[in-house]
Each structure stands twice: as structure tokens, then as C-alpha cells.
Amino acid sequence: MANTFHVSLYVDDIDAAVAEYQRIFGIAPAKVRPGYAKFELADPPVIFSISVGGEPGTLSHLGIRYPGTGEVASELARAKGEGLEMIEQEGVTCCYAKADKFWVVDADKVPWEMYTLLADVEAETADDPKLREFLNQKGSSSCGPTTPGTGCCASS
């Protein structure tokens, strides 16, 4: 599996957004849960997720999904070598998935989630106070209030 670009947007109405993006992309979502949906596009390879909990129409976060934990560990080591500030999370439950990941924030305050999917889970997004503190320290505007079913950055 190749690396896949990840985009997460906030929406006002998950049902209406799912219907609209299904028409735009021409495919059904790969996952729909309360307050969350994910589309997996093959060409170009993009994971496009939408969630409630932030300002509708704004970016929650960007990211890259790697094929496995080894690739995430390699990128983590590389990013540390570059002196990037980050927060690491192993086996975290977020966005109805269990993942190994790390987060960085770019110069324009956009959060980047670098991760591998370990398993799909039925649990709602878990609130992570350490991640919220890291993103708020970095000045990211994407960490909105904790709301059940919100996107990873909104409550994690």
C-alpha cells in the first residue's frame, strides 16, 4: 500500500455533507458514524473525512496515512532529526479507528497527522488533553470544543 494523503474538514450537517460528497466523488463513504464520515478515493489516493464540531467549511487537519507502524516510526525519526516539535500517540483511538501516529503543526498553524491505521473500531473519538494542549500551544485554530463524534483534531 502506498502513502495516502488525508484531508479532514468540518461540516454543519453530516448527513447532508455525506450526500453532497457522494455526488461529488461518485462513491459511497467507506465509513459513516455519528458526526463523522470518511471517503477513500483511489485516484488520486486521498482519505477525505468530514466531521461536526468545528466551524463548518474550515479545515480540521491534513495528514498522511502510511502503510504500517514501521513507516510511521521512520518518519517520526526523520521529523525529530529535523527538530520538529511534535506529539506522539501509540495505539490511540480517534475517528473510529485505532492508530499509531504523531502530530506536527506547520508554520501556518495547520495540524498534520502522520499515522497508520491499526484497526477500525466502533468507539467515538477519544478526547486527548495532551494533543489539545499541543495544538493550542502551536496556535492551531482547528481544535474546537469536545463534541461526541467530532473529527480527530476537534476532540483529540
Notes on the protein architecture:
The structure is a single chain. The protein is built from 4 helices and 8 strands; from the N terminus they run βαββββαβββαα. It has helices at 14-25, 69-81, 129-137, 152-155; strands at 4-10, 31-33, 36-42, 45-51, 59-65, 87-94, 97-105, 111-120. The radius of gyration is 15 Å and the shape is globular. The chain has a single domain (4-155), classed as 2,3-Dihydroxybiphenyl 1,2-Dioxygenase, domain 1 (Roll). The protein is an alpha+beta fold and 156 residues long. The longest helix has 13 residues, at 69-81. Strands 2-3-4-1-5-8-7-6 form an 8-stranded mixed sheet, sandwiched between helices.
Distance between the termini: 26 Å
Count of strand segments: 8
Assembly context of the chains: single chain
Shape: globular
From the 3D structure, determine the CATH topology: 2,3-Dihydroxybiphenyl 1,2-Dioxygenase, domain 1
Q: How helix-rich are the residues, as a percent range?
A: 10-25%
Order of helices and strands: EHEEEEHEEEHH
